[in-house]
Amino acid sequence: MDDWSARIRPAGDRAMLITLDDPRPVQRLASALRVHAIAGVQDVLPAAETVLVTLHAVSYGVQVRRELLALLERLDQEPPQPDSPDVSRGTATVDVPAEDIVEIPVRYDGADLPEVARLLDLSPAEVIAAHTGTIWRCAFVGFAPGFGYLTSSDGRLTVPRRDRARTAIPPGAVALAGGYSAVYPRGTPGGWQLIGRTDLRMWVVERDPPALVRAGSAIRFVETTED
Question: What pLDDT, on a 0 to 100 scale, did the predictor assign at position 167?
């Protein structure tokens, strides 16, 4: 059993940083904190290997830390719930109500699609089928407003970043890198492998909420030929 007390550290006077060193337990903890709300917790901010928990007030610190320890120990003893396999497509899906899935139409004409196919020893059509054939989950957001790091239990699409980053990537570019997929919300430099593009706006300040995809969101990519 892990020493969870050593993994919870103060981050200022109204936050705690939990270090987990692996994306899987990060996602389990963030999901559990959303389902089992702890009194005094203001927000839960997952990252690649950590979860930041912010508090409404300093006075909640002792109580929240105690409940976090209890939750971590309980999750440590429970086996993770596997995603249900979709045998017919060779991928894996997650049991999510259709109305809760964000659908993103994609034109799969990215400049790096042939190279991604080569790296994975797949055809471009097989890369597209794998990308559209699974439900993605937003593990955390970062880099730019609206940029969600999407994970999938189908591990076939794990490719490295490009050797040389591009100085400009257009908004709406759909990309892969390091086991994640993402949609660039605005024009920025970037080193991910570009496989397609979408016209959906990932971040709109006037929208409520501004981000189309947030931590915990379920996403399905849908191939389209429309421009």
Answer: 95
> Please, what's the b/e burial string for 56-78 (b: 16 or more CB within 10 A of its CB; e: otherwise)?
eeeebbeebbebbeebbeeeeee
The DSSP letter of residue 39 is: T
Count other C-beta atoms under 10 Å from residue 209's C-beta.
9
Cis peptide before 79 (omega within 30 of 0): no
- Tokens found for residue 19: 């270090």
Question: pLDDT at residue 7 above 90?
Answer: no
Residue where the block lists tokens 């957001």: 141
Mean per-residue pLDDT, 78-99: 48
Closest CA to 141 of 133, 150, 132: 150
pTM for this model (two decimals): 0.73
Structure tokens given for 70: 């209890």
